[in-house]
Amino acid sequence: MPQNADFAAAFRLIVDAGPSIWALTALSVVAVALILWKISQLVRLGAWNGGRATQNALSRMEQGDREAARRSLLGRRTLRARIVSYAMTTRLFGGLPESAAREDTERFAAAYLERTRAGLRPLELVVTIAPLLGLLGTVLGMIDAFQALQDSGASADPSDLAGGIWEALLTTAYGMAIAIPASIALTWFEGIADRLRHEIEDGATRVFVYASKAGL
Fold first, then answer.
1. Are 17 and 137 in contact (CB under 8 A)?
2. What confidence tens digit (pLDDT) does each residue in 122-166 have?
3. Residues 106-120, mean pLDDT to the nearest whole number
4. Which of 117, 146, 171, 183 is the most exposed, fewest CB within 10 Å of its CB?
């Protein structure tokens, strides 16, 4: 059966490529797991929802309806809503002076914003290691290929050398195939984290500016 033959050939090629290909396979599983986990975490934090509700609450606050603005954010679990609600509670209803309320809000926000960058360092490590592992596999494969060429002496078959080099280069391609999508995902996650940080800083600043204008 052609499909079974293709699968057997692919499996044999992976086995012949050496330990580097197995390490890269494990690394690809780690990368996929990290990406899926990060997406689910950002969904739970409300990276793509909750922004409109927070903006509406801030608009209500700036119109003078502070209590309604705070109530509209209570119970919401998104990152923006929690931090802006905390800033409102601390500055507008907590009775703290501005400096103390600002420091307390920054402390609270920092703990949540740290979650937006969780898992990015391991993913960055995958991006760095995958091409190096691929290159290592290629170098080891080339060494084996040229060693076999030396051992065969004058009876060396160029096709065998070409086949060995081709199999060695497979690990470099595999490493790059892992690193490129992982790098794209890493850049995407970093952009989301930066956007959330900017939006949260903007929302908290609006709370403190309103409190100063209202003489609170």
1. yes
2. 999 999 999 999 888 888 877 777 776 666 665 656 665 665 677
3. 91
4. 146
**Distance in angstroms (rounded) separating the CA atoms of residues 62 and 24:** 54
Which residues, 6+ apart, have CB-to-CB distance to 200 below 8 Å? 79, 80, 83, 84, 109, 113
Region 170-181: mean pLDDT is 91
Other C-beta atoms closer than 10 Å to the C-beta of 56 total 13
Contact 148, 204 (CB under 8 A): no
3-state secondary structure of 80: helix
Predicted TM-score of the model (pTM): 0.82
Q: How far apart are CA 22 and CA 189, in angstroms?
A: 27
State how far the Cα of 80 lies from the Cα of 45, in Å rounded to an integer: 9
User: Quick one: residue 49, left, alpha or beta (phi over 0 = left, psi -120 to 50 = alpha)?
Assistant: beta
